[in-house]
Amino acid sequence: MNLLGSLLKQLLTAGSVLQVPGRVRNTLEEIQNKRRNVETADILSMMKFTLPRFRRSFICIDALDELQPGIRKALLKALCEEFTGYKAVQLFLTGRLHIAPEVNESLRISQYSIDIIANGDDIRAYLISQIALDTSPTAMNKSLKEEILQTIVEKSQGM
Predict the structure, then answer these.
(1) 16 and 31 share one domain
(2) More confident residue, 12 or 16
(3) What is the pLDDT of residue 16?
(4) DSSP labels, 81-116
(5) Is the pLDDT of residue 17 over 70?
(6) Do strands 57-61 and 89-93 pair parallel, antiparallel, or not at all (unpaired)?
(7) Does 110 share its domain with 129?
């Protein structure tokens, strides 16, 4: 899973003082010598040896809802099984509200939820600033501009 591999890479390259743990180095050499692909189990194993080297770790994953359902389920399972045992590991996940039940069911850990709802005035201001950057300002009259602004702001409510 590319996402977990990316997390492992970030952990291994964090801080110039830390060195790659011997067991991680051995696992990587074994994978290279056997000319095989790195598997999710390999990544999770290496993360288990890497995480304890940090006093505190934050794993941040944005837009969880944009992952394919199968990948999201596998990731949540890995996060639950592998990382919830470390008190020094904090998870920060973002996603749209419709995946909250899946996350709650998968993680079963104490969590906090913050609902972020778009403000119509902010959306309108952003759209106006983007329209102002248009290289063909005469392509849109005032009436069309207002219709676009009104429609997008109305449709965005609750997002």
Answers:
(1) yes
(2) 12
(3) 56
(4) IIITT-TTEEEEE---GGGHHHHHHHH-S-------
(5) no
(6) parallel
(7) no
